[in-house]
Amino acid sequence: MRYLVPAVVVVALWTTSFAPVAAQWIRYPTAGVPRTRDGKPDLAARTPRASDGKPDLSGVWQNDGYGPQNQEGAGPTPKTVFFDLSYGMKGERPPYQPWAATLAAQRKYDEAKDNPDARCLPLGPLQMMAHPLPKKITQSPGLVVILHERNMEFRQIFTDGRKLPDDPQPSWYGYSTGRWEGDTLVIETIGLRDGLWADFYGSPLTGQAKMIERIRRPNYGTLDVQVTIDDPKAYTKPWTVSVNQHLGLDIELLEYACLENEKDVPRLVGK
To answer: How many other CB atoms are there within 10 angstroms of residue 168's CB atom?
Structure first.
């Protein structure tokens, strides 16, 4: 049986229990998966291609920190980019401006009680990609859509040649355009609202942030995702983090309404 991660996680360790789900599309075989001679999924097989010859990024994907693929009940460990972006930065730390370092430290000390995830608010694009709940990518000519299980959130990435808006209305997920550089999809995002969290512990993002994602599918079962944050208000220089994904087999997205029967928020008091 598949297990879901609750939206409210307010301690550094993942101590919230997992709730079993016994309905919707569970264990439905993923179509078209290449197989080895002994019948096992061949996730190292060649990259699938779309009708235009570009890599097809479509599929249900999970953050590599979520645990072994298809392991029942597996949850993220604290040593993942979901909790702390530095785990995807090869041991470095985000180059905080002084005020941002102070804020991130305070948020961690408060056990992330004000994280949008804990408050059932939208996550923003970086937390969405790093989140342990799965996301589905659907790719069509001119548009890539990322559907996230949590709160049925979504992102639209336009690959039809349009330019980013000159004066965007700030939003939780901003405005994203994409272009192909060889087999890499390069996504630029601007127009994020002030006050977003880049990770669970509270690395800040401001309205000045520009996010550049470089996504490759080197084989059938892997997405290599490199995200560069250029936010001069919160950081002294641009920095890059790996938020790699693996293909989720025989699973589909489930309905996940964070506020349904929500009882945790009044108890989120930190230290």
So the answer is: 13
Counting every residue, how long is the chain?
271
d(CA 225, CA 141): 21
Q: What is the pLDDT of residues 231-243, one digit of tens each?
A: 999 999 999 999 9
DSSP reduced 3-state for 60: strand
Q: Where does residue 167 rank: exposed (0-12), middle (13-18), buried (19+ CB within 10 A)? A: exposed
d(CA 16, CA 7): 9
How far is residue 84's CA from residue 151's CA, in Å, rounded to a whole number?
22
The predicted-structure confidence for 41-67, as pLDDT tens digits, reads as follows: 999 999 999 999 999 999 999 999 764
Residue 54 token pair: 């570009």
Rounded to two decimals, the pTM is: 0.86
Pairing of strands 153-158, 175-181: parallel
Residue 117 near residue 7 (C-beta atoms within 8 A):
yes
Task: Report the candidate in 216, 226, 224, 221 with the shortest Cα–Cα distance to residue 55.
Answer: 216
Q: Which of 131, 268, 106 is nearest to 201 (CA)?
A: 106
Closest of 30, 64, 33 to residue 46, by C-alpha: 33
Which H or E run contains 105? helix 98-109
Instruction: Tokens for 131, please give them.
Output: 């989140």
Which residue type does 244 have?
A: N
Q: What is the secondary structure of 186-246 as a DSSP string?
A: EEEEE-BPTTEESSTT--EE-TT-EEEEEEEEEETTEEEEEEEEE-TTTBSS-EEEE--EE
Q: Using alpha carbons, select from 234, 259, 187, 191 the residue that is nearest to residue 85.
A: 234
**DSSP, res 48:** P
Q: Report the C-alpha gap between 22 and 263 in whole angstroms.
A: 22
Type and span of the H or E element at 135: strand 135-140
The tokens 């989720």 sit on which residue? Answer: 248
